[in-house]
Fold:
Amino acid sequence: MDCIFCKIIAGEIPSQKVYEDDRVLAFHDINPIAPVHILVVPKRHIPSLLAIQSDDQELVGELHLALQHVAKEMGVADSGFRVITNTGTHGQQTVHHLHYHLIGGRQLEWKA
Ligand code: 5GP
Ligand code: ZN
Structure:
């Protein structure tokens, strides 16, 4: 499959990993927009938030716990952070493998 994140998960493209378990991987975004910018992804290819099924509810919970873990690991739990899942054209999703941006380490503005 021609998916950059599947290739990262398979180790075919290098990444700076910050968390990994059986079903979830977290790694530094290659083009960070803040001092902390981590991508948290399911290891299984799910194209977007819209493709999540009822059977994936446990996995979605695991992704949230991984986000919490990474926020603490990266030292932004106390200062605060933002989690974003871009979806579709207006959402400007560019990689079609479900991923959560965890952004922090500076004061963020709210400009959608
Ligand atoms: P999207 O635009 O789909 O919400 O987010 C995709 C993100 O993946 C972007 O922030 C982009 O910088 C990041 N990205 C794209 N290609 C790579 C890559 O090869 N390695 C890493 N670490 N991040 C990537
Ligand atoms: Zn994929």
Notes: The longest strand covers residues 36-42. The mean pLDDT is 97. The chain has one domain: 4-84. Helices lie at 4-9, 57-73.
